[in-house]
Design brief:
- The protein is of the alpha/beta class.
- It is 48% helix and 17% strand.
- The chain is built from 12 helices and 11 strands.
- An 8-stranded mixed beta sheet has the order 6-5-7-4-8-9-10-11, with helices on both faces. Strands 1-3-2 form a 3-stranded antiparallel beta sheet.
- Helix 5 crosses helix 12, helix 6 packs parallel to helix 7 and helix 10 packs parallel to helix 11.
- It is globular.
- Belongs to the GTP-binding SRP family.
- It comes from Caldicellulosiruptor naganoensis.
- It is found in: Cell membrane.
């Protein structure tokens, strides 16, 4: 095992150096604050000493991996594009084969289109798209068009239904208050940490945390752990009336991310409590988190229970845990709200991306069976 010590002005600087030096698999063994040397060091802000470690083999290979990173990233992007193109080509091939099987010559053209629409409907259904949405999509496709036009129009209709991507407007008043709400286990705390890291490292924003999830001690400790690593101020919000006092301590922050308790949509008392917290804070933005693994019948109930929030954006979590992507279209259709981000794992801050409607429209119209 390779062990190294780092002296930095804050934890953020230390983490950047550790990741660049030892890689993302490095483990922090312990940290401590140390005074700077010399007489004048007594009057300066203490430094942070961080001891980190990684396997020798990983450390030896790190330099080679760094050289290959750019090429690998480019190759991965190209392979993704080729894979999506391959699915569309495979779909077209299936249709051409279906045309060849038509035996009555006068009806060949019309029969092939009908057969194609049946294949497309079945394909979308296999991908998890609800029947109600299928009917709406197919009603917008002209049966008189060529097969290529039908495919292109279906893709455009799905993309339009998914809507435009959305991101935080960081140019408005400061500090902004952003709430994260949703059922238990959907991944609110981890998602907050991912967004906070991106805001700090990519946007240069000063972030604050407030946790109102006092039902689970582990949730509070988890957020405090992320806050300590990223050097973020954190406050715990127990009672509704404490908000005004708490928010005053964040005057120097650009944005405040508020973690709320996971609420059962069937527990009206808990939902009323959440409603009181939201009403008191009157947040600038609210994100409703929904899992891609949730069945449509369940997330319809969840969406209805959060109807007291008039304007919110959606974050879809656990996209990496599904093999079919129709539920993303289902969520967008039933919420009628913009999708802001999708999360694809537990790694902070890497496993989160701004929603890309073009990408997911291709995944939805394609299928692993084609």
């Amino acid at each position: 095992m390779k062990i190294k010590r780092y002296l930095a002005h804050d934890m953020q600087e230390a983490l950047i150096r550790i990741k660049a030096d030892l890689g993302k698999d490095a483990v922090i063994l312990f940290t401590k604050k140390v005074r700077q040397k010399g007489l004048f060091g007594f009057f300066k802000k203490p430094l942070i000493e961080v001891t980190a470690a990684c396997e020798d083999e990983k450390f030896i290979k790190k330099e080679e991996e760094n050289k290959k990173t750019e090429n690998l990233a480019l190759s991965f992007q190209i392979s993704q594009i080729k894979e999506l193109e391959k699915k569309i080509e495979s779909l077209e091939k299936t249709i051409k084969e279906a045309i060849k099987e038509t035996t009555v010559l006068p009806e060949t053209k019309e029969s092939s289109k009908k057969n194609f629409l049946d294949v497309m409907r079945e394909n979308l259904k296999r991908n998890g798209v609800e029947d109600e949405i299928l009917d709406e999509l197919l009603s917008k496709v002209s049966r008189d068009d060529s097969i290529n036009n039908i495919v292109n129009n279906m893709y455009k209709e799905i993309k339009n239904m998914l809507g435009m991507p959305w991101s935080l407007n960081l140019a408005s008043k400061q500090p902004q208050v952003v709430f994260f709400v949703g059922p238990t286990g959907v991944g609110k705390t981890t998602t907050i940490a991912k967004i906070a890291a991106k805001l700090m490292f990519e946007e240069g924003k000063k972030v604050g945390f407030i946790t109102a999830d006092t039902y689970r001690i582990a949730a509070v400790e988890q957020l405090k752990t992320y806050a300590e690593i990223m050097n973020i101020k954190t406050k715990v919000w127990y009672e509704v009336d404490e908000y005004d006092q708490i928010i005053k301590s964040f005057d120097d922050s650009d944005i405040i991310l508020v973690d709320t308790a996971g609420r059962s949509h069937k527990n009206q008392e808990h939902m009323d409590e959440l409603k009181a917290f939201v009403k008191k804070a009157s947040p600038d933005e609210v994100f409703l988190l929904l899992s891609a693994t949730t069945q449509p019948t369940i997330f319809k109930e969840i969406v209805n229970s959060y109807s007291f929030i008039e304007d919110y954006k959606v974050i879809i979590t656990k996209v990496d845990e599904v093999s079919n992507y129709g539920n993303i279209l289902n969520i967008r259709h039933y919420t009628k709200k913009p999708i802001a981000y999708v999360t694809t794992g537990q790694n902070v801050p890497d496993d989160i991306q701004q929603f890309n409607p073009e990408h997911f429209a291709k995944l939805i119209i394609g299928s692993k069976v084609l």
